[in-house]
Fold these 2 entries.
Entry 1:
Amino acid sequence: MRSLLPKVALIIPAAGSGERFGAPIPKALVQLNGRTLIEHAILNLGSLAAQIIVAAPAGFEDQFKNLLGDAVTVVTGGSTRTKSVKIALESIDPEVEYILVHDAARPLASTELGEQVIAALLTGEVAVIPALSVADTIKEVDASNYVVLTPNRERLRAVQTPQGFARETLTKAHTQNIEATDDGSLVEAMRGKVKLITGEDRALKITNPEDLASALKYLVPAVAADIRTGVGIDAHAFSSDPKRELWLAGLRWENEIGVDGHSDGDVAAHAICDALFAAANLGDLGSNFGSAKPEYAGASGARLLSETLKLITSAGFAIQNISVQIIGNRPKIGPHRLAAIAKISQALGGAKVSVSATTTDGLGLTGEGKGIGAIATALIIRSESLLK
């Protein structure tokens, strides 16, 4: 397989806004276990290709270039997935014979799956896509939500990526003036033959924050009988009060205006608390520390983290890992990253913590400098499983 790699290019359309995900940054830049989704995708499939092209959202090109390095060609994506792939095709090297198209939203699709797609292409297939059997009964409905058809699920498949194509086939498919949710559909539309191979469970699609928890299970060794994961997102607008102090990641930031909130507005701490509550099924930040509980008015992020630890521990769980990504133009996290990690870890009883930061390049609440946000993931296990 390795001798054939120079003939392969990898295209990743990653220009989606992440609106359905609910994050204030493009979904491809959301972190999963310390790496962004786009980094995971390239780590798993990049070794199969001599050329990698990523279609980034407009305004985020430099951020993608800085993140991915010179080995990846970054182009400005289009308003739809189909348009992004079509744009990326314009940058394909002349010697490329086969093209893999892969969604950044499927970050854990394995190298082995990519190799299987390429192997099928080498047998003469012109379009190869991985797919899984459908376990549920599927209903087709009309505009009024009445069932009009129940397809035979034995003939239904849920398709995944990476999808592989002979270069000429994919190029021709994209000359059609139609939109599709996957490139295999474009080949079908011109009556091309599309071969299905068996996909894999780990090539799941990240659509909602809860999907990060599902994906995390593939990255964590199953050493415990009961592993739980959770995701938390928080954002606050900067205060109009110039005397309001900024508290973030358990630290007070000098010469920075703070954010409004019932407590101290520490978005990093709040996102972590929500992630832990979600993992343990103990409600959320509002139900545990919200405005209905005046004792938490003005409470520090460190205090809320400590209180959350008590609740998690009382429910029989132990924290294994915390990852939080801070989103905003300011303050600059880098110089104080280690202090932030230490403060959060201390509040959580010495738990392993990672802290990262990103911006939204002038877009949205954080990009316009109106506020700051954070996304956190938490990994917890049943305490008694540690004794086994």
Note: The longest helix spans residues 267-280.
Entry 2:
Amino acid sequence: MEQSNQNETAVIIGGGPSVKDINLDLIKDKFVIGTNAAFYFGDWVDVCFFIDCRFHRDNEEALNKFPNRIITTCSTLKNKKGIEHYNKCEKCAICYHKDKLAQPEKGKNTGATAINLAIRLGKKRIILIGYDMQVVNGQHNYHNYHKHRPRDNIYDVFLPHFEKISKSLPKDVEVINANLKSALPYFKKQKIEDIIWKV
């Protein structure tokens, strides 16, 4: 494969415990979409993206200090100053409507919709970090910023949307999962160190 133009590459930080195993210095000069609490890593995160209104409620004070783009599909934040809003598309795996992002009623999750966002932002090479899709050592997340704990089998509900995304990807878009132990089976897996040098 030819080397990718850095401007066409996005790294998405998910919430899985494996984020703690990644040398984040490797991605600080990349275009980074941080889902949910990833914005706490610093202003090298280019976009904070979330779909859960509760996340904004629980982290509003910190979000108000975040200097970069904040994007959500939370309907109660549609007219909130400083936050970009997309409506939910419940029919598509990947939505291209100018005002919508794919978010099925069943199986919705921030990580899957973030892939749609990256595509909408023109990214052709999407690198997934922290997309574990399983409980690791009793933990769902690398952080404790969520006030609620999801049920352990929630990933069975999430996976069908990822499968549909994998089957709907444009031919010129590549998605790579940087967690070799991830329970997400639909994208090529490769160590972050082996991915980044090509970017």
Note: The beta strands are 9-13, 31-35, 47-50, 69-72, 84-85, 87-89, 100-102, 125-129, 174-177, 188-189.
